[in-house]
Amino acid sequence: MAMAMMAVPAISQTQGGATVLKPADVQKLLPASVFYRGQSATTQLRNSGGVKFADGYFVLATLVDTSGYSTGVQTKYSAYFIAEVPIKVGGQSLPAGAYGIGFVADNKFVVTDVGGHDLLTVDSADDAGLKRPTPLAVAADSSGGFRLYEGHKYVVFSR
Questions:
Q1: How many Å apart are CA 123 and CA 115, to the nearest integer?
Q2: What mean pLDDT is reported for the chain?
Q3: Which of 42, 79, 92, 125 to pair with 155, CA 20 to 30 A apart?
């Protein structure tokens, strides 16, 4: 498992007919900037990941440059997250949509709408065994879902 996690940026993984996307795959799908909390933020497409489900729907994530945002926004918004279908994040339901996300203090993961309003908060975990963490990555999880990583921190999502 650790070897598979180390190789996340280099290869695509499949899980139940879904394919984990590499940053090069996601770069073709996401824009150079996104709208969040009244501003346009540049995406860091080299730090992106996602999943293409067997039916063709996507879940995509990319880090964003939050330098123009207030400290309050920066503490909970580090990435842009798009789900074309309803999913579960940390066991909680999240409808299809575009969101701001972030790993915050006390091992929490927060999802906000594009206005910056909190929608859900779930526990995150730390993968201390991850040898070469990347700023953002997606990997298959042994539960049948997927892990969204930011460094060593992760949250599991599934359909």
A1: 22
A2: 92
A3: 42
